[in-house]
Amino acid sequence: MSRPGPSLPEPPADHTPPSRPARAVRYWWQRLLHNLPQKFLALLLAFILWFVATEDRRANIQQSYDVALDVRDTTGGQEKRAIDGLNPASVRVTLSGSRQRLSALNASDIGAYVDVTDLPDGEFSRTVRVVGPDGTRSIKVVPTVAQGRIDAELSRSQPIILSVTAPPGDSVPRYVLSPRQVTISGPSQVVDSVARVVTVPVTLAQGDQLETRLIALNAQGQPVQVRLSPASTTVARIDSGSLPIRSVPVKLSAPPGNLRVLSSNIEPATVRLVGPPELLSSIGSVTATVLYRNGSFSSQPPLILPDGVRVLDRVTVQIRAENR
């Protein structure tokens, strides 16, 4: 029986402490696993609450806008074309989309148009098309059809007529316009209806100037929708001094001996005269030279004035006379 040999010595135990990064990882891993079911449940509840709270923002709604109607015409050719009498001028567009998207839109962000490309001149009736912004859908447009007239485009020049309000004071104002002509463009029938182009009424003091808008008018004095180039003109008052003005009454010339005046009316009863001060001071009244005749009549008789004096008003007389 053999005797056991001597045992080998055990290796020394490793008592080296873990490094700082390893301790940090172990700490946070333990914190993560601590109460893990409760943490998961809280996260789930938070997601459910967020989903419910934002459901209204994600839901699609409908909103209507009044959108100006445009006309698209890509017809080729030498002759320019214009649209007259577009009806309606705007349409009611209803879009569908998220509340957040629609609340940020303006009517100008939406396109509504009719396409008249290659249509012949004359009356037309076309379906209205709508182009909505990204994230929206057009679901309704009222009305669905627009009418109008295609006409050849005409351009012509017209002098500008100044419209001013007489400034207070004893002076005769003088004005200059820059420019003095305007180009009218639009459908030929509409352009032909323009009788005159006037400035918006202005009142200027001596030496002042002002840019004022232009308006196209027909023979009845109603505005006409055409394009004006330029759309405004500069009015400058250039008189530097004052000319004396005197108001005097108007008298009628004597009727012939074979007529008797039954009634007479002078409009205006007084007129304004302009001239040298020494002449104005000597004038007490002016005489209207009437060509009398039997019956009732109206006329604008000339006034008898000294040389160098002129009148600023036009006189109208209404007379009823009979034979003696």
Give a description of the structure.
The mean pLDDT is 84. The protein contains 6 helices and 22 strands. The strands form 4 sheets. Strands 2, 5, 8, 9, 10, 11, 12, 13 and 14 form a 9-stranded mixed sheet that branches. Strands 6-4-1-3-7 form a 5-stranded mixed sheet. It has 3 domains: 93 residues, Beta Complex (RNA Polymerase Alpha Subunit, Chain A, domain 2), CATH 2.170.120.30; 76 residues, no CATH class; 79 residues, Beta Complex (RNA Polymerase Alpha Subunit, Chain A, domain 2), CATH 2.170.120. The protein has 324 residues and is an alpha+beta fold. The relative contact order is 0.09.
Keywords:
single chain; 324 residues; alpha+beta; RNA Polymerase Alpha Subunit, Chain A, domain 2; 3 domains; five-stranded mixed sheet; 6 helices; 22 strands
User: Number of DSSP helices?
Assistant: 6
* Domain tally: 3
How large a portion of the residues is in β-strands, by DSSP E? 35-45%
Helicity, as a percent range: 10-25%
Mean pLDDT, to the nearest integer, reads 84
What do we call the CATH topology of the largest domain? RNA Polymerase Alpha Subunit, Chain A, domain 2
